[in-house]
Structures are given as structure tokens and as C-alpha cells.
Amino acid sequence: IKGTWQSRLLAEFTQATERHTKLGRFIVSRADMDALPAEDQALLREQWAAMGTYLGVLEKRIARLQAPLFT
After folding, report:
1. Whose C-alpha in 1, 25, 38, 64 is 20 to 30 A from the C-alpha of 9?
2. CA 40 to each of CA 14, 22, 30, 67: distance values in angstroms, whole numbers, following the listed order
3. Angle at CA of residue 54, ends 51 and 57, nearest 5°
């Protein structure tokens, strides 16, 4: 992929995917989550969902890299 913004987009997607995966693993680890107050648990779940939405947007932008507009 040519250009620096495309490279940054792909790097951001990779990093965001890793963070989303790590947070998801933390959320399902009952011992760690149970140690947190209920409000913090809810906020982490909300953050994980927002990160998933963000990843969806990045995926759409990456898919557009294949569009004739960008070739």
C-alpha cells in the first residue's frame, strides 16, 4: 500500500485489534473482573463495545483502500 496514511491506518487497526483482544480477555477472566467494583466492570464492558465499533469503522476504511478511488 502506497503512502503514509494507509500505513498508519493499517498500523492503527493492528494495534486497536490487539488492545480490543486483550481487554476482552481481561473481561472474561472472572477473578480479575470480580475484584473490580461493579461500575468499573460496566465501564470496561462499555469500552470494549466502543472499541469494537471503532474497529468496524477501521475495517470499512481498509476495505475502501481496494476501491478505484485509492488505486
Report:
1. 25
2. 26, 16, 14, 41
3. 155
